[in-house]
Protein 1
Amino acid sequence: MNKSSYVLIALVALTLIAPALAMAESENEGSERSEAGERESGEHEGSAVNSNVSNLVLYVTLATIAGVGVVSAITVHKARRKATAKKLV
Amino acid sequence: MTLFSNILRPHLILLVLLLVPAAAYADDDNYGSAQALGWVAIGAGTVANVLFMVFNAVKKLPLLKIGMGSEMPRTMFAMYKPMLNFHIMLNSVGFFAGMSHGLLLLRGLDSISLSLAIVMTVSMVSGLVLKVASDRNSKFFGRLVHGQVVLSILLIALVVLHVSVMGADFD
C-alpha cells in the first residue's frame, strides 16, 4: 500500500466520523433542550406538523439510499454471475 | 524532490483547499461565517458537478457532430484526468465546508439537514470507493451508487428544501 492510499483512507475515516459526531452532539443538545422545551409546550402549534413533514423527508431519504444500495448490489451480483457463467462455457 | 512532486504535492494542494472553509469561518461574526460556510459548500458543489457533467456530456458527443478531423476528442481525453481531480478536490472542499457548517450550527439541526448530511456522506463515500478500491466488484458498486440519478435529484431537492426552510426560520 503506497502513501497516497493512507491519505485517502484517512479522508474516508474523516468522512465517516463527521456525521456520527454531529449526531452525538445533537443528542446531547436535544436532551438539554428537552427540559426547557417542556416548559414552552403549547407555544408552537404548527411545529408538530412541520416535524412530521421533516421526519417524512428523513425516512424517504433513508429508503432511497437503501434502495440505491440494494439495486446496485443486485446489478453487481448479476454481472458477476454472468461473468462466471461465461467463464464456465 | 521526486517524493515531493509525486506523492506529497497533490495532497498538499488538497489539504490547502480543505482549509478554505476555515478561512471563511475566520471572521468576527460567528453566525454569519458559519452560514457562509453553507454557501461555500453549495457553490463548490455546483461548480464542481455542473462543470464535470458538461465535460462528460461534450465528451460523449458523437464524432459526426464535432467533426471527424477535429482535435477535440484527443484534447478531451487528455483533459479528463485534470477535470476528474478538479471535481474531486472541489467536492471535498464542499463536503468539509458543509459538514463544518452543520457542526457549527448544530442547534438548528432538523431532519432535512440530517438527510442532506447523510446523502452528502453517501455520495462522498461512494466517490472515494470508486477512487480507492482496487477490487473490480467494489469499483463497479461504487460507480453504480455514485452515478445514480435518484441520488443527485434527492441531493438537489434537499439543498433547496434546506435553504428555504432555514432561510424562513432565521428571517
Protein 2
Amino acid sequence: MSSAYDTTQGEHYDDDYVLVDRILLSDHHAFQSLYEKYYDRVYAIAKGILIDAEEAADAVQEIFTLVYKNLVKFDRRSKFSTWLFRIAVNRSIQSARRLKFRRHLTPYTDAAESVAEPERAPEEVDPRIGEAMATLHPNDRAILTLFYWDELSLQEIAESLGCSSNAAKTRLFRARERFKSAFELLGGTGE
Amino acid sequence: MKNLSPELNNMMWQIAEARDEAAIEEFVSKHPDLRGEMISRVNMVQGLKGSKPHTPKVSAKFLPSPRSLSRETPRALALTVVVFLVAAGAFATMGVLRFIENRNTTATVVTPEKLRPVSANNGSQIEQTVPQGRSQPGPMPDEKPVQPLRAEEPFQRPVTIVAKNMTLDMVLNDIAIQAGLDLQSAPGMPEAMVEIDFRETPAIQVLEALGQTFGFTALIQTSSSALLIPARDQNDPGTPIGSGSVRPSEPSNRGGKLTPLPGLNNDTTQSR
C-alpha cells in the first residue's frame, strides 16, 4: 500500500480519504463523487453567508475549484469535510466582503426577492428570518449557517472556523443574540 | 427583552433548539413570564432551520470556476502596473533631467522684452526696453535682435592677457580658457603675431579690440560661444574698449594695447 493510503489509518480516519487518494492518483471520477456528495452542504454555507443564490452557486464552483487545486496540500489533520467547510466559509466570507458595496446599493427586500426566484422557498418560512440574516456580519452568518443549516457540532464548527470549541461557542452565542435583535427589530416576535 | 441571567438565557436557547415539547412546557410552567420569549425563540430557531435553502440541481459535472482558475490574472495585472509605473518614473526622471539641461543651455535666450546695451561707456550695463503698444512680445520685423549680455555671463568675465610675440590663435585660446568660452574660428581667420596687454578686461572687449585690430568679428552664438569670422562691417565704427580706445603702443592697467606682428594667414576652422 502506498504511503498515501497509510495516512488514512490515522486518528482522523475518514471515508473521504480514499476518494482523496484516488483524486491524487488522477481519478477524476473520484472528485466528481466528492463534488456530488458535498455540493448541498457547501451550497448551504455559501448561500447562508452570501444570501444571493447566484453568487452562492458561483462561490460553490470557486470553492470546489480551490479544493481541486489545493488537494495536494490537504494534510489530513482533520476530516476532509472539515477542511472543505473551512475553505467554503473563508471563500464565502471573502466573496461577501467583495459584494458588500453592491449589497449596499441593493435594498435587501429586492435582494431577497431576487434570491427567492431561482429556488422554491419553504412556505412556512418567515421572510424576516432571511432579512434578519442579511443584516448580520458574514462571520455571524457563517457560524449560524454551520450550526443551523449544516448542523455541525461545536467542535466541527471550531475546526471549520479555525478556533477553539469555547471560542466557537461564544461566537455562536453572540451571533444568535445579534440575529435575535435583528429579527425583533423587523417586528418578528415569533408569537 | 427582559434581563435574563446567562444561565437562563442559555437554557432557553437549548430548549428552543431541542424542540422538546415536554421541556418547553416544563420551562413555561416554571417561568410563565418568559412564555412569550420562549415561543419567540422556538419559532426563531425553527425559522432559521427551516430557511435552509433548497439546493439547486447539482451540475452534472464539476466545472472548474473560471474565476478561480484565473487567479493568476491579478498577479499579471499587478506586474503590468509595476512595469508601467517604473517606465513612467524613468520617463519622468529623464524629462526632468532634460528640462534642467535645457534650462541651463537656454539661460540667455532672447526674452520677449528685449535687452539692449545701454551705453557705450559701460558694456556690462544693460537696459530692458519694452516696445510701447505691443501686446505680443517679440522682435519687430525691421529690428535686429540683440544678444542679451549679463554681467555674470562668460563674455563679461574679466581676462588678463599680457604677452609679446604671441600668435593670435594662442591669444584667442587664452581668452577662451580664462572666460570659459567656446570660440569657433571660421576659415580665413588671420594668424598674426600679437603683442597684447589687457588686464581685468571683459572678454568681449578684448575680442572686440582684437577684431578691430586684425579684421574679424565675434558673432555671439550663445551665452558662452561665439563664431569668429574674418570680416568687419565697414559701417561699424567699432565698440569702444574700456574707457576709450585702444592704443597699441601704450600699455595700461585697465584696458590694454595690441600690436600686430607679421604673421601667416590660414584658412582653417578651429575651435577653442
